[in-house]
Amino acid sequence: MRSRLELQEITRTFQDGGIERKILDKLNLQVAEGELVAIMGPSGSGKSTFLSIAGALLAPTSGDVLLDGESIIGKDKHELSELRLRKIGFIFQNANLIPYLKLEEQLMLIAKLSGMEKAKAAERAKELLDKMGLSHRLRAYPEKLSGGERQRVAIARALMNDPAVLFADEPTASLDAARGLDVVNMIAKQVKHRQKSAVIVTHDDRVLPLCDRVLFLEEGKLIHK
């Protein structure tokens, strides 16, 4: 089974008062198709830096990141923007929905940015929202939704362009226990069904049984415990 996400010997350093600080230290990770990997670690361990590099938002000091076998190192800003739009789906802590767009429009905007044909986009948006149990809410605005419903919209939006990799950054942080488990369960099901590689950064121990692997970020490396 192929890995849709691969990080090879990723190192990231920065200068702090003339002293070089190392955040990530030759970090390696492979995430296979259909696999959901949880990343845990204390504040300041480098989780945000890891996620930014893996998600093509920040360049590593050294090492390589491969999405669907293609290196993203050395690409210019426009190429990286296109790559994020077509290859990566992000699910954030607070859903980050656009307040003045209805549910269906949230997804249609992503399709429009990628040049997807309108009729095909409308069909896909309705299919995804139906999978999320939101077919009756297509014309609702985000303010009318519960926290769990907003996160389900965020999952559907992240899947709209059929990305290779999904990243979820603390997706349960603003939810109660039941809604948090529901959201991660939906992510896990979609990852399996659509054969994505997915990474969830979390502090929530309750969702770990839904993940295929749990890794801890310590001293700049990912380790099993």
From TrEMBL:
It is a peripheral membrane protein. CDD domains: ABC_MJ0796_LolCDE_FtsE. GO terms for molecular function: ATP binding. Residues 5-223 form the ABC transporter domain. Gene3D superfamilies: P-loop containing nucleotide triphosphate hydrolases. Its main location: membrane. The keyword ATP-binding applies. Keywords: ATP-binding, Cell membrane, Membrane, Nucleotide-binding, Transport. It holds the Pfam family ABC_tran. It is found in: Cell membrane. SUPFAM superfamilies: P-loop containing nucleoside triphosphate hydrolases. InterPro entries: AAA+_ATPase, ABC_transporter-like_ATP-bd, ABC_transporter-like_CS, ABC_transpr_LolD-like, MacB-like_ATP-bd, P-loop_NTPase. The complex is composed of two ATP-binding proteins (HrtA), two transmembrane proteins (HrtB) and a solute-binding protein. Belongs to the ABC transporter superfamily. HrtA family. Part of the ABC transporter complex hrt involved in hemin import. Responsible for energy coupling to the transport system. This is Putative hemin import ATP-binding protein HrtA. It comes from Cohnella boryungensis.
